[in-house]
Amino acid sequence: MSAYVAPLKDMKFAMKELAGLGEVGKLPGYEEATPDTVDAILEEASKFSSQVLDPLNYSGDLEGSRWSDGAVSTPKGFKEAYRKYVEGGWAALPFGAEWGGQGLPKLVATAVEEMLTSANMSFSLCPLLTQGAIHALELAGSQALQKTFLGKMVAGDWTGTMNLTEPQAGSDLALVRSKAVPEGDHYRISGQKIFITYGEHDLAENIVHLVLARTPDAPEGVKGISLFVVPKFLVKPDGSLGERNGARCASIEHKLGIHASPTAVMVYENAVGFLVGEENKGLAYMFIMMNAARFSVGLEGVAISERAFQRALAYARERVQGRDLNGGGTVPIIRHPDVRRMLMLMKSQTEAMRALAYVVAAALDVAARHPDEKMRQQNQAFVDLMIPVVKGWSTETGIEVASLGVQVHGGMGFIEETGAAQHLRDARITTIYEGTTGIQANDLVGRKIAREGGATAKAWLEHLKAFDAELAKSGNADLKAIRGALAAGAAAVGESVDYIVAHAGKDVMATFAGAVPFLKLMGVVAGGWQMARAALAAEKNLRSGDKAFFEAKLATARFYADQVLVQAPALRDTVVKGASAVMTIPDDAMLAA
Ligand SMILES: Cc1cc2nc3c(=O)[nH]c(=O)nc-3n(C[C@H](O)[C@H](O)[C@H](O)COP(=O)(O)OP(=O)(O)OC[C@H]3O[C@@H](n4cnc5c(N)ncnc54)[C@H](O)[C@@H]3O)c2cc1C
What we know:
Layout: H1 8-18, H2 21-24, H3 35-53, H4 57-63, E1 66-68, E2 71-73, H5 78-87, H6 106-119, H7 121-140, H8 143-155, E3 158-163, E4 179-183, E5 186-197, E6 206-213, E7 226-231, E8 233-235, E9 241-244, E10 247-252, E11 263-276, H9 282-318, E12 320-323, E13 330-332, H10 337-369, H11 373-408, H12 411-414, H13 420-427, H14 437-449, H15 455-472, H16 477-503, H17 508-513, H18 515-541, H19 547-563, H20 568-584, H21 587-591
């Protein structure tokens, strides 16, 4: 079975040449992120991922987490791996020194997170949720709450969860019913939450649940939701653990994938909870967690794609079957044009998604730290536009890539022991949790395009126009072809944005019926933009560095332009023409045999 090897060359290329690691390192507070330090961190993360997490991925899937009498045991080896994760300081990487963090840029943390997730997605979910909870407390928690919880959570000694979902409240959180009754300096929380990732486990001594609930006289809908911290064990004034709180894990789910990650049904019975921020503003605070988590789930799409690609590539080089089309004897399947097509679809889309995710991570750093307010605002607007794209497009594509990975393996892909099937099963959740693709697309079309008249998207298209002028200077045949495909893609985005802005107010059903194709179009073109930038950088470096890597990058970018970016005009047609048809079909006609 193939072992995970972090694609450090491509990661470093994306960080340095595309995401501007050099500039990020100059931002106030990020001075520690020198090239040498970053290289050393990436090397160590790569070792930890390959040596500690990857060997537990398959066994963890087979064994799964187990529930017994309210307690959850994670699979063999997970506790030890988590201890090493904490001791290695990995939990503290992206957080400020105030709480014991290492204060490294999001860009660096993103590359590390990709490696942990590629190696073992089930394991990586625990840190993912903890980081979201830390962000929410950092931004909205009182000083007292921060003091009680943040140090332990940043260190990784305590983990965090996000408790939104209830049986009747999934995508629509307006329907949340859990109750929070004030009592002195705290509240009493009651209700049932379902699907809570790492809601109960044996990796850490305490679990800090962030829970959405309603106070007794709260208004209906999303305006009446508040956010509470509900620890598994109450914390004494000296910081030590006190009595067990009224938060209990009633069961865990049996799932299609991520078997090692416990998905808990949580029951809160008069549990002591502490308000985060102000009453009735819970959803806004939860969005802080959700945006960070949405980005991370998008990154899961990248990570699973990379892992599925590595496995398929290794298999394709070994498996001998069929004869060389050019004549001769039997060959490894990697020699067959269709297998090469599948592998290149996997590779090129993975690299495009990685590049976009890293560029968005760098924009998050600039938005947080740049001294110039205008730069901060511009980058935040770009991040807001791209987060649903990173989440929706990278996860949908991640499933396609993992499915191609199964296909490359032939029948053995369907058999669990190769590991290819696990990637497909694990990938399947990524388009569902943290907001389904439909919800991401609604956010993109409604909040990020229609509400502001397409302003940020148009600013991005202007940027693409300026970049086109740069591409035009190259005489390289691949770059010429890439330029043509990117220009057609940008035009397709522009026409779709105009359509959405013109129709969102008057034909809302038809506009939103095209939301997911529009999200895909944005991803395909944004990925094409990054691959074009990568190709340009590769062409410039061809004679100065790692020739084989840069030649491969040019060829991969050309493949992406010819096979993926070329889909953009058809996606535009789905947005502007095909979408309205969805709404004209009567419900009954869908039932017709
Ligand atoms: C393994 C796993 C882990 C999870 N972890 C957590 C967690 O840690 N914390 C937590 O709070 N939740 C968690 N969830 C819950 C997850 O976030 C929800 O399942 C998800 O938000 C979808 O909600 P739902 O399942 O109720 O589907 P529904 O909301 O019922 O959606 C069903 C379908 O309808 C579509 N749909 C619904 N509304 C709209 C709309 N307005 N426009 C267009 N389409 C729409 C959806 O896209 C979907 O295709 C987890 C779920 C799973 C399975």
